[in-house]
Amino acid sequence: MKGTFIINGQSKTMDFNSDERLVISLRNNGYTEVKNGCLEGECGACMILLDDMPVHSCQIFTASVQNKNITTIKGIGDLHLPHIIQESFVEAGAVQCGFCSPGFIIATYALLKKNPNPTENEIKQAIDGNLCRCTGYVKIIDAIKNASKLIQKERVHS
């Protein structure tokens, strides 16, 4: 099959099998920032934004999201122009191997867009479904709290 998708703001035509999951299609087309973890929707490594909603791309058939907006971690920020959330994760030491980081940052981005001042419990709920084996969750939660403060400060000065 062939379909058109809007990935990180750009129209992209991709070839894919009719029963292919989105995580596989994205990776096969160069979007390797979307990690292929458990393929069961449990680890969060494959998380993307689909029309601004965080979803596990391993749980979605590629054919079902044609012409939808897909945002990967590179659509939020990259090495040359990182997002405040990405910088906060680095500064807090919430990134070690990096495998889970895209999913956590996607979940954080969606949370802070909807709620720029979340409680710790709201943070925990937002990142539920994302697993980390290296850092644990203390530094990740600290990074999200710091990003929240920075985003709020940025909004005041805008």
Provide a descriptive summary of the structure in words:
- The protein has 158 residues and is an alpha+beta fold.
- It folds into two domains: 2-76, Beta-grasp domain (Ubiquitin-like (UB roll)), CATH 3.10.20; 84-157, [2Fe-2S]-binding domain (DNA polymerase, domain 1, Orthogonal Bundle), CATH 1.10.150.
- It is built from six helices and five strands, in the order ββαβββααααα.
- Strands 2-1-5-3-4 form a five-stranded mixed β-sheet.
- Helix 3 (84-91) packs across helix 6.
- The longest helix has 20 residues, at 138-157.
- It is globular, with a radius of gyration of 15 Å.
- The termini are far apart.
- The model has no long low-confidence stretch (mean pLDDT 95).
Low-pLDDT regions: none
Mean pLDDT: 95
What value does the Rg take, in angstroms? 15 Å
- Would you list the SSEs in sequence order as H and E? EEHEEEHHHHH
The helix fraction, in percent, is 25-40%
Helical segment count: 6
- The CATH H-level homologous superfamily of the largest domain: Beta-grasp domain
User: How many strands appear in the DSSP assignment?
Assistant: 5
Strand order of the largest sheet: 2-1-5-3-4
CATH class of the largest domain: Alpha Beta
CATH fold-level topology of the largest domain: Ubiquitin-like (UB roll)
- Biggest sheet statistics: 5 strands, mixed
Q: Report the portion of residues in β strands.
A: 5-15%
